[in-house]
Amino acid sequence: FGNTCYCNSVLQALYFCRPFREKVLAYKVQPRKKESLLTCLSDLFNSIATQKKKVGVIPPKKFISRLRKENELFDNYMQQDAHEFLNYLLNTIADLLQEEKKQEKQNGKLQNGSIESEEGDKTDLTWVHEIFQGTLTNETRCLNCEAVR
């Protein structure tokens, strides 16, 4: 596998984020069209969840192989930045989920025969957004009068 401890750290943290783990495991039961990073992550989380031993090792071979196929940044045996990997993984999953929502809407429109505006498609929030998205505010406070800008 090479140097994948950055990946291991992120995967363990995400697995122990209960809302994320539950959504990934629920994704496992949905019918699949093709292999993706999310399907590989779901398989990996399912292997961990169904592991009979309390202590053990589950090699993420399939997940790492898929990651390396999808992004050349991770297609080497060098140490990577865990933060970059986390951002890439969450953004990739969110993009995939948004694309699936878009496909479902289009399939529904074709069946119903109605044509609606597709403006809302890009702003649809996924469960990744619901779990991890936040708002960052930056305030400057005057030390003399304590006014906030």
UniProtKB/TrEMBL annotation:
GO MF annotation terms: cysteine-type deubiquitinase activity
Family matches, as PROSITE patterns: USP_3
Entries under InterPro entries matching the protein: Papain-like_cys_pep_sf, Peptidase_C19, Peptidase_C19_UCH, USP
GO biological process: protein deubiquitination
Keywords: Hydrolase
Domain USP: 1-149
Classification via Gene3D superfamilies: Cysteine proteinases
GO CC entries: cytosol; nucleus
PANTHER family in UniProt: UBIQUITIN CARBOXYL-TERMINAL HYDROLASE, UBIQUITIN SPECIFIC PEPTIDASE 12-LIKE
Name of the molecule in the record: UBP12 hydrolase
Source organism phylogeny: Eukaryota, Metazoa, Chordata, Craniata, Vertebrata
